[in-house]
Amino acid sequence: MKATGIVRKIDELGRIVIPKEIRRTLRIRVGDPVEIFTDREGLVVLKKYSPIDELGSFAKEYAEALHQTSGRTVLITDKDDVLCVAGGSKKEFLDRPTSEAFENAIEERKLFVATDKDPAFVSVLRNDEDPSYTQQCVAPIVSDGDAIGAVVLLSSNNDLGELEIKLASTAALFLGKQMEN
After folding, report:
1. Mind listing the pLDDT tens digit for each residue in 130-159?
2. CATH number, domain containing residue 171
3. Are 26 and 66 in the same domain?
């Protein structure tokens, strides 16, 4: 078999340095959890760990319930990707990487509502110059003190109100508590 990757040696403590290019591509930073497992062929796999991903189908059902209640497009994200979409185009959002500005916004651990005219408005997706929505409500999901993702409600009519804000806030709080259990 021909080697095509970067070769690194294991040190005396069993450590391997993950090359900068790979860390940048996978958006792995100092302190980020990384999952290590083997597949059936004996390959060792490193994967950036997403705690929200563990909620799986529960998060999808929760997003669908939020959509049915609010009539809005609902996204549930971790800090790097959109994990669930309800009421919107799955092709447009699902499994797409989030923007750095979005990640920075949820790191502040504060709920915010913004229209595309506000300075606080951030594109949810990376490289999305012309988003299909004009208003957003972003409620960070905080678990054990760490911002791990967000519940996002989107509107193209700039009509998000108190109900949507409460729904997003409650959903984020609930999902954060689920992660702590």
Report:
1. 888 999 999 999 988 889 999 999 999 999
2. 3.30.450.40
3. no
How many Å apart are CA 161 and CA 125, to the nearest integer?
23
Q: Which pTM value belongs to this model?
A: 0.77
**How many CB atoms are located within 10 Å of the residue 5 CB?**
7
User: Are residues 78 and 24 part of one domain?
Assistant: no
pLDDT digits (tens, 9 = 90+) for 31-89: 878 888 888 888 888 887 777 777 778 889 999 999 999 999 999 999 889 999 999 88
Of the candidates 72, 85, 152, which has an alpha carbon nearest to the alpha carbon of residue 112? 152
Other C-beta atoms closer than 10 Å to the C-beta of 117 total 9
> How far is residue 4's CA from residue 56's CA, in Å, rounded to a whole number?
33
Q: Are residues 78 and 136 in the same domain?
A: yes
Number of structural domains the chain divides into = 2
Does one domain contain both 77 and 8? no
Same domain, 45 and 58: no
Query: Within the chain, where are the H helices?
Result: 20-26, 56-70, 90-93, 100-107, 162-180
Task: Give backbone dihedrals phi and psi of 146, rounded to 5 degrees, phi first.
Answer: -105, 135
- CA-nearest of 107, 163, 117 to 137 is 163
Do residues 74 and 63 lie in contact, with contact meaning Cβ atoms separated by under 8 Å? yes
Range of the domain at 93: 52-180
